[in-house]
C-alpha cells in the first residue's frame, strides 16, 4: 500500500489554506523543511519530523516530534534532505507544499529532485494554489480536471521524449516525438474528466497552472 508524505517548505509562492488542510488530511507522514515549521505552527499542524539547517528560522519553539539538524554548509537542500527522510520512512507518494517560485536556483534544484526520484519509481510533486509540478519516465499519468489548475503543459526533460500521447485535452498528440528545444506541449487544457499523458521512452516534466492576479 502506498504511503503518502507531505513536506511543507519554507516558501510558498501562492499559499492556500484549503489546499494545505487537504494535503494534511491525506498525508500519512508530515515533514517540515526548516522554515516550513512556521507555516505548520500558524495552521496548528503537528509534523512528524522537522528537518533542516535552520538558517531561515530558529528552533526555540519545538514541536514534540523528531528534529534532524544539518550544518548550514552542506551538499543538498533542506527539500532534498526532507525527501531522503521520507523515503527512509518508506513513503513512496510525496507532495511538497511550496517550492515553485521564489528563488530560481532552488526551483531548478527542485526540478532536479523530481528527476532523481521519478527514475526510482517514486511519485513526487510540488504544489501551491496556482501551480503543480511533477514528472513521469517511460509511463503514463492521469491529470484530473480541476478548478484550481486550468492549464497544463508537458516538456521533455531529456533532449527528446519519444512516443508522447495526450488524450482528453484540447490539443491532443498521438505517438509524437517531442524535443526539449520546442514548445509544442505548452498551454493545453483538459476537456473531459481527465487528460492522460503517456511517454514511451524518456522523461516528461508536467506542469499544471492557472492565471494569477498581478501584484499591485
UniProtKB/TrEMBL annotation:
GO-annotated molecular function: ATP binding; kinase activity; thiamine binding; thiamine diphosphokinase activity
Enzyme nomenclature, EC number: 2.7.6.2
Domain (Thiamin pyrophosphokinase thiamin-binding) ranges: 139-205
One GO term (biological process): thiamine metabolic process
InterPro entries listed in its UniProt record: Thi_PPkinase (IPR006282), Thiamin_PyroPKinase_B1-bd (IPR007373), TPK (IPR053149), TPK_B1-bd_sf (IPR036371), TPK_catalytic (IPR007371), TPK_catalytic_sf (IPR036759)
Record keywords, A-Z: ATP-binding, Kinase, Nucleotide-binding, Transferase
Domain of life from the UniProt record: Bacteria
Name of the protein in question: Thiamine diphosphokinase
Top EC class, one word: transferase
Species of the source: Baileyella intestinalis
Amino acid at each position: 500500500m502506498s504511503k503518502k508524505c507531505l513536506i511543507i517548505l519554507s516558501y510558498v509562492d501562492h499559499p492556500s489554506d484549503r489546499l494545505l488542510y487537504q494535503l494534511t488530511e491525506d498525508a500519512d507522514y508530515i515533514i517540515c523543511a526548516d522554515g516550513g515549521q512556521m507555516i505548520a505552527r500558524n495552521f496548528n499542524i503537528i509534523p512528524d519530523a522537522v528537518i533542516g539547517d535552520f538558517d531561515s528560522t530558529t528552533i526555540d519553539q519545538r514541536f514534540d516530534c523528531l528534529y534532524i539538524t544539518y550544518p548550514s554548509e552542506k551538499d543538498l537542500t533542506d527539500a532534498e534532505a526532507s525527501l531522503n527522510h521520507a523515503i527512509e520512512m518508506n513513503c513512496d507518494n510525496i507532495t511538497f507544499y511550496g517550492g515553485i517560485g521564489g528563488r530560481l536556483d532552488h526551483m531548478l534544484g527542485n526540478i532536479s529532485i523530481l528527476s532523481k526520484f521519478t527514475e526510482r519509481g517514486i511519485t513526487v510533486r510540488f504544489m501551491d494554489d496556482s501551480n503543480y509540478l511533477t514528472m513521469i519516465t517511460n509511463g503514463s499519468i492521469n491529470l484530473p480536471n480541476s478548478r484550481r489548475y486550468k492549464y497544463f503543459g508537458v516538456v521533455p526533460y531529456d533532449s527528446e521524449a519519444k512516443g508522447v500521447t495526450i488524450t482528453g485535452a484540447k490539443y491532443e498528440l498521438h505517438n509524437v516525438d517531442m524535443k526539449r528545444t520546442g514548445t509544442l506541449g505548452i498551454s493545453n487544457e483538459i476537456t473531459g474528466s481527465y487528460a492522460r499523458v503517456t511517454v514511451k521512452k524518456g522523461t516528461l516534466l508536467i506542469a499544471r497552472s492557472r492565471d494569477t492576479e498581478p501584484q499591485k
